[in-house]
Amino acid sequence: MSPPTELSRQPNLTYRSREYLPPREVQRLLEAAGQRGRHPLRDRTLLLLMFRHGLRVGEACLLKWDAVMLEERCIAITRLKGSNSGVHRLQPDELEALVLLRELYSGSYALFVNERGAKLTTGAISKMMKRSGELADLPLPVHPHMLRHSCGYFMDSLPIKS
Q: Residue 23's CB: how many other CB atoms inside 10 A?
């Protein structure tokens, strides 16, 4: 095996000691996303849904308004990479954010759009999350898949009822 070159990607452990955010850091990230950029409601809502529903960045990009059932308080999640798709319940704060988001971006089929009305790209979400993480002064660099891991970390930390 040849030695790594300057352009090769190092293992994740080189960049950060963990691949998840505990709930208090997720909260700081959400608050920062809601305070920066030209689309704070969109950005905060996007990160909130990614965390609560364990969305991959590609799954978040594919969300459309016809998947949101406000009256039933749920959202249809289409999973990628062979995971099971399904319908998830929405929490009151998610519902409120989605109602406000719908008013702002009423002409779009995609749930999360850019300034031209096209769906957000994975790269745009990565940049937004990185900048939000910097504003939140988190102790490690963040990327979108960390929210999926954070969802799992949070679920594992819940007490088991017998």
A: 12
Q: Let me know the angle formed at the C-alpha of 66 by 62 and 67, rounded to the nearest 5 degrees.
A: 60
CB 121 within 8 Å of CB 61: yes
Residue 14: predicted pLDDT: 62
The β-bridge relationship of strands 74-77 and 68-69 is antiparallel
Strand, helix or coil at 64?
Answer: strand
Q: What is the pTM of this model?
A: 0.86
User: What's the fold here for domain 19-155?
Assistant: hpI Integrase; Chain A (1.10.443)
Structural domain boundaries of the chain?
19-155
pLDDT in tens, 8-27: 766 666 666 788 899 999 99
Helix axes 122-135, 40-53, angle to 10 degrees: 100
Q: Nearest Cα to 74, choosing from 52, 58, 56?
A: 52
- Cβ contacts of 73 within 8 Å, gap of 6 or more: 89, 90, 95
What crossing angle do the helices spanning 122-135 and 23-33 adopt, rounded to 10°?
Answer: 110
